[in-house]
Amino acid sequence: MITEEERTARSRRACDAAIAAATALGLDASEAKVLYDVFSVVVDLAPSPVVARVPVVTPRGTTSTGFQRTELDVSRWLAARGVPTVVPSALVPAEPVERDGFAMTFWEKVEGATPTDYDAVKRMPVVARLHSILAEYPGETGFFPGMQGYVDLAFDDLEGRDDLLPAADLARARAEWAVLSPVISSPAAFARAFPGVPVQVVHGDAPFYNLIETADALLYSDYEHVGVAPVEWDLAHTGEEAIASYNAAAADLGLRTVDTGVLRAMERLRDLQVVACLALVPQLPLLVDGLSPSLAAWRVTEPWQSGDFPAK
């Protein structure tokens, strides 16, 4: 388990790597400072109007650069269509940069970001709008890219780690994953389980949360987990009022409304994603407190079984 001193040192190394990479690219980062340090270290490369994002906590078996390339491509495509979004910095090439063992991306600094309450109900029309646009994205993305390979390895890492997850919980999670994982193994498998429910490119990581507000704009951000999935993947655990808000906006945009059967399955998959995140606790101990409410909510649900899929 990483200590707080080790975590601080990791943050410092990531910041130093970002400064060195930025300097090599011709940026002045003499006043750089860390803005944020959780899964990624986010560095303000002042006085240059650029922010570096440096992932420091990654699941076993994954690499950052593939997700980063997708994120850069999607953000540039959205910006080219006039969509309000965080964009890669125009001062450096829009590609991942590797330095001192870290892979990073560089973004245009957003000035004047304001505090927000992350109200899912209010933000659902903006999410529906994003879905209407991403449905036309022509680039290559994976099918449920944030899940493939990751969950199995995470559960393996949790084996015998009762300090992180009791054995009974892990056994239940494995059993639920055995039922649900085949459904998201391919678009064809999903179609067999949920006939008539389309999939498309979606944000992949709580788009209502990953918005940056300023006094005069609301910017989409954080496309690392963009991929093909049902829109319900972006809407899991947002609540009935938020779903009603999304449905109203979707109808106005000519989109389909939420399929409740798919939503239930996506919510259970998100639960299993939370369980799998416990494997990252040795890299990021603060996850224990952050994940506890979601784990408690999952434990009081009935285990998912094959009969829980809608009747065909």
What keyword list fits this structure?
single chain; 312 residues; alpha+beta; Phosphorylase Kinase, domain 1; Aminoglycoside 3'-phosphotransferase, Chain: A, domain 2; 2 domains; five-stranded antiparallel beta sheet; two-stranded antiparallel sheet; 9 helices; 9 strands; 41% helix; 12% strand; globular
What does this structure look like?
With 312 residues, this protein is an alpha+beta fold. Helix content is 41%, strand content 12%. It contains 9 helices and 9 strands. β4 (97-99) and β5 form a beta hairpin. The longest helix is centred in the N-terminal third of the chain and has 21 residues, at 4-24.
Specify the biggest β-sheet.
5 strands, antiparallel
The CATH architecture of the largest domain is: Alpha-Beta Complex
- What is the C-level CATH assignment of the largest domain? Alpha Beta
Could you tell me the strand content as a percent range? Answer: 5-15%
What is the count of helical runs? 9
Strand order of the largest sheet: 1-2-3-5-4
- Rough shape? globular
Order of helices and strands: HEEEHEEHHHHEEEEHHH
Q: Tell me which oligomeric state these chains represent.
A: single chain
What structural class is derived from the secondary structure elements? alpha+beta
Helix content: 40-55%
What Rg, in angstroms, do the CA atoms define?
20 Å
Poorly predicted ranges (pLDDT <50, ≥5 residues)? none
What is the mean predicted local confidence, pLDDT?
94
- Per CATH, the superfamily of the largest domain is Aminoglycoside phosphotransferase (APH), C-terminal lobe
Distance between the termini: 47 Å
Count of domain modules: 2
| CATH fold call of the largest domain | Aminoglycoside 3'-phosphotransferase, Chain: A, domain 2
- Per DSSP E runs of 2 or more residues, the count of β-strands stands at 9
